[in-house]
Amino acid sequence: MDWYLNLLLFVSLGAAIGFVGAIVGIGGGLIAIPMLALVFSMPQQLAQGTALLMIASNVILTLRNYHKRSPIDFRSVAIGVAANVVTTHLAALVAQDMSPVLLRNLFALFLGSVATFYVWQTLRAGKKRPVAEAGAARRMGFIQYVILGSISGVIGGLFGVGGSLILVPVMTVVYQFRQTSAQAMALSMILPGTLVALITYSWHGNTDWTVGIALSLGGMLMIRQGVRLAFYLPERTLKLIFAGVLYLTVALLLLK
């Protein structure tokens, strides 16, 4: 295939992935990684490192659009960010030497568990308490931010994506954040760690910059529209979409 057709293909894929990623607040990596591994036969580490390039740019723009609609307390988030950066780097180093098959299977297991939890949470939402606004983040103390930042860093470092997946359920269930507020807080906490993971994967030669940049360009074109739809959709619908994306990703990973 000619280079310009390849470029058009990856830009188009990036646009679709960026749109879905913005809706559910995940930066699109959950879709990009299995796609690169399955369709383009990339080893798991290379797929994760390449997707990180798109994830980093998408998260920055997605976070900016979420912050406009639901302001984030960045001062509190900074505690979790510091823990996230350290554990992301350590976990990313471990991931470089893992078996690609083991890494992919662990990724599928993790995503399936989170998706099942989200479906369970949504189905029992009939008796839920009134959810809080973004300001409720002050109820989280220093220890909570450190723990959540550390755990999300391990997940993000191992799999190249997914740190926000552990943060969003905790914030919505335990601290009663709205879905969109939780997604915004989670994105702000994982962004620096995502950049650290990208540097680590790239340093070990596990990043295809040409493909990653094309995906990034496409993703940035559709992020604003995805965030707008996220704030328009009902809470229940948004959570079910979130779980559906995870189950789809698990299916794709297991097909490999």
TrEMBL record:
<feature type="transmembrane region" description="Helical">
    <location>
        <begin position="7"/>
        <end position="40"/>
    </location>
</feature>
<dbReference type="InterPro" id="IPR051598">
    <property type="entry name" value="TSUP/Inactive_protease-like"/>
</dbReference>
<protein>
    <recommendedName>
        <fullName>Probable membrane transporter protein</fullName>
    </recommendedName>
</protein>
<feature type="transmembrane region" description="Helical">
    <location>
        <begin position="210"/>
        <end position="231"/>
    </location>
</feature>
<comment type="similarity">
    <text>Belongs to the 4-toluene sulfonate uptake permease (TSUP) (TC 2.A.102) family.</text>
</comment>
<feature type="transmembrane region" description="Helical">
    <location>
        <begin position="76"/>
        <end position="95"/>
    </location>
</feature>
<dbReference type="GO" id="GO:0005886">
    <property type="term" value="C:plasma membrane"/>
</dbReference>
<feature type="transmembrane region" description="Helical">
    <location>
        <begin position="46"/>
        <end position="64"/>
    </location>
</feature>
<dbReference type="Pfam" id="PF01925">
    <property type="entry name" value="TauE"/>
</dbReference>
<keyword id="KW-1133">Transmembrane helix</keyword>
<feature type="transmembrane region" description="Helical">
    <location>
        <begin position="101"/>
        <end position="121"/>
    </location>
</feature>
<keyword id="KW-0472">Membrane</keyword>
<feature type="transmembrane region" description="Helical">
    <location>
        <begin position="237"/>
        <end position="255"/>
    </location>
</feature>
<feature type="transmembrane region" description="Helical">
    <location>
        <begin position="182"/>
        <end position="203"/>
    </location>
</feature>
<keyword id="KW-1003">Cell membrane</keyword>
<keyword id="KW-0812">Transmembrane</keyword>
<dbReference type="InterPro" id="IPR002781">
    <property type="entry name" value="TM_pro_TauE-like"/>
</dbReference>
<feature type="transmembrane region" description="Helical">
    <location>
        <begin position="142"/>
        <end position="170"/>
    </location>
</feature>
